[in-house]
Amino acid sequence: MKGFFKSSIGKKVLMSVSGLFLILFLLFHLCMNLVVVFSASAYNEVCAFLGSNWYAVAGTMVLAAGFLVHIVYAFILTAQNRKARGTDRYDNQNLPAGVEFASKNMLVLGVIVCCGLLVHFGQFWAKMMYAELAGTEGQFAPTDGAAWINWYFHDSPLAVAFVIVYLVWFAALWLHLNHGFWSAFHTVGLSNNVWIPRLKCIAKWFSTIICAGFAFVVIFAACGGINTKSDCCNKEKCGAKTECHQEAPCNPQTCPNAEQGK
Amino acid sequence: MAEGHKSLNLTLRVWRQANRQAKGEFKVYNVKDISTEASFLEMMDILNEQLINEQVPEGPVAFDHDCREGICGMCSLFINGRAHGPDDDITTCQLHMRKFNDGDTITIEPWRSGGFPIIKDLMVDRTAYDKIMQAGGFVSVSTGGVPDANAIPISKVIADEAMDAAACIGCGACAATCKNGSAMLFVSAKVSQLALLPQGKVEAAKRAKAMVKKMDELGFGNCTNTGACELECPKSVSISHIARLNREFLKANIKD
Ligand code: HEM
Ligand code: SF4
Ligand code: FES
Q1: What band does A261 get if pLDDT is binned at 50, 70 and 90?
Q2: Window A:147-206, CB contacts with B under 8 Å
Q3: A241 domain residue, yes or no
Q4: Which ligand is closest in space to the CA of residue B171?
Q5: Best interface-test mutation with B: which of A90, A177, A183 has the largest number of B CBs within 10 A?
Q6: What is the pTM (predicted TM-score) of this model?
Q7: Which candidate from B13, B109, B114 shows the least CB-CB separation from A83?
Q8: B74 CA to centre of ligand 3 in angstroms
Q9: Between these two residues, A167 and A245, which has the higher pLDDT value?
Q10: Per residue in A83-96, pLDDT tens?
Q11: Best residue for ligand 1 mutational test, from A15, A85, A174 (most atoms within 8 Å of Cβ)
Q12: In CATH, what number is assigned to the domain containing residue A20?
């Protein structure tokens, strides 16, 4: 393996493996997000579990390393490619149809994905995982993920802007994955004349499902679909059948209905 | 001349550059009465005759060619924005003037890629591909005399696949077209044609490593699987060979 990671193919393998790892993470993240559509309290349990859990913190470190490898090599490879191309440009180049837009613009798309990530980090990771670890106080509890989602995409004065930013982010991700998915398999040699069209087809479906899934959760939240009220914890005294009427999570001490309860 | 041919009057925008260091520019020339039955290179010959007669200061246009039948890989030329011109799956020498219309303006450029520096006008230095071949694109073990054709059974599928890769003529259109200046299609064709066959398998690992090393050393880019190369390759070499090269290279590196 001496010199493998210095070779062009070796560097591409790093790109491919880190990319596939990030894809797995996306899949996991999407599953987590979809929970909020069904139940805000179940989602918050997932948040509570992943926030306070040191395995999750370790997982985050591994994930960060994956991103780092992918991003560092993205810039190294792109810089080398520009040098290899040389400074001379064709007066005009009209390629026949068949070259995917994404395949020629992976760095630009990656940078957009990266910018989206930074916004996302500021909004959620800093307010949830980091806040919990650092013990800082926020507008909502770090484990109340559903409330955070509802705030950013529905209640915040900037909600519409956030929704647009997120949808642009997912569009860039869609393009990046559309090419990246099959390209990653090709790079590690797992492709041939039969599988190239199959992988391209799977890539289309896969990136569409992933990105449409993420977009759905955002739009669902923007439409006010997230129920931030918790289940009633004071059923004997309070009139609420299932849902707590209080703004904050259900608390028997401050329940305004406690006295009138039947 | 055969019946049915037409004559074309054309405007040519040709890249002129005295040498590698000189600053190049497009010069515009008009050619008249070019038969639609002429080949593109014959049209270039007619242009050159005209330039010699007119005694233009820049002289005739330098361009590469040899066999003029699509097998040597010498002809290059980026014509109207495409390597080997507007037709698919052919070399420049196989391009005919019937692909053009009377009154057309045709832009003719050299390959422009870091790996292929311009020598003069439309002629570029493609020795980088020869150097990659010298690094391992051959079978060096003694294979003895010519064996009986059926002594080494090879399935039709494998033979066809090896033949498709062997069709590569080393013209350089792949790297010239690639936005990353990558020579992967060429290298993968050369690695594939031998890795697929028993005679070449013996040195497959060594070959893949040596040729990739040379390709990197010469400064060719990293493939991002855009697939532009296979669309412009005159021999329709498929990028599936690139997947095989990646596989061979990975295998070779894992082995040691
Ligand atoms: C969730 C985030 C991301 C995922 C899932 C992802 C996934 C992938 C995959 C699977 C590939 C294909 C690898 C190959 O062709 O072998 C790829 C390529 C690439 N990615 Fe990403 N990526 C992500 C984020 C980024 C970011 C943040 C950047 C840069 C700032 C980036 C830049 C690139 C570039 C330049 C390539 C092309 C590299 C090449 O083919 O040589 N990606 N990505
Ligand atoms: S792979 Fe095709 S384009 Fe590249 S050198 Fe060979 S014949 Fe030319
Ligand atoms: S001149 Fe030989 S291939 Fe065109």
Answers
A1: very low
A2: 179, 182-183, 186-193, 196
A3: no
A4: 2
A5: A90
A6: 0.91
A7: B114
A8: 5
A9: A167
A10: 999 988 999 888 88
A11: A15
A12: 1.20.1300
SS3 sequence, chain B?
CCCCCCEEEEEEEEEECCCCCCCCEEEEEEEEEEECCCEHHHHHHHHHHHHHHHCCCCCCCCCCCCCCCCCCCCCCCEECCEECCCCCCCCHHHCEHHHCCCCCEEEEECCCECCECEEECCEECCHHHHHHHHHHCCCCCCCCCCCCCCCCCCCHHHHHHHHHHHCCCCCCHHHHHCCCCCCHHHHHHHHHHHHCCHHHHCCHHHHHHHHHHHHHHCCCCCCCCCCHHHHHCCCCCCCHHHHHHHHHHHHHHHHC
Chain B, 19-38: which have a CB under 8 Å from a chain A CB?
26
Task: Specify the residue with its C-alpha closest to ligand 2, atom 6.
Answer: B168
The residues lining ligand 3, judged by C-beta closer than 6 Å to any ligand atom, are B 65-68, 70-75, 91-93, 169
**A260 pLDDT above the threshold of 60:** no
What's the pLDDT tens digit per position in B161-203? Answer: 999 999 999 999 999 999 999 999 999 999 999 999 998 999 9
- Determine whether the shortest distance from the Cβ of A17 to ligand 1 is under 6 A: no
Name the minimum distance, in Å, from the CA of B168 to any CA of chain A. Answer: 17
Question: Is the distance from the beta carbon of residue B137 to the nearest atom of ligand 2 less than 6 Å?
Answer: no
How far apart are the CA of B69 and the centre of ligand 3, in A?
A: 6
Task: Give the whole-number percent of chain B exceeding pLDDT 70.
Answer: 99
Residue A70 covered by a domain: yes
pLDDT of residue B58 exceeding 90: yes
Q: What is the pLDDT of residue A124?
A: 83
Which domains can be identified in chain B, with CATH numbers? Answer: 7-120 (3.10.20.30), 126-142+149-255 (1.10.1060.10)
In a domain, A50, yes or no: yes
Q: In this predicted model, what pLDDT tens digit does every residue of B104-163 receive, in sequence order? A: 999 999 999 999 999 999 999 999 999 999 999 999 877 778 878 788 889 999 999 999
Structural domain of A34: 2-85+105-228
B253 touching A (Cβ < 8 Å): yes
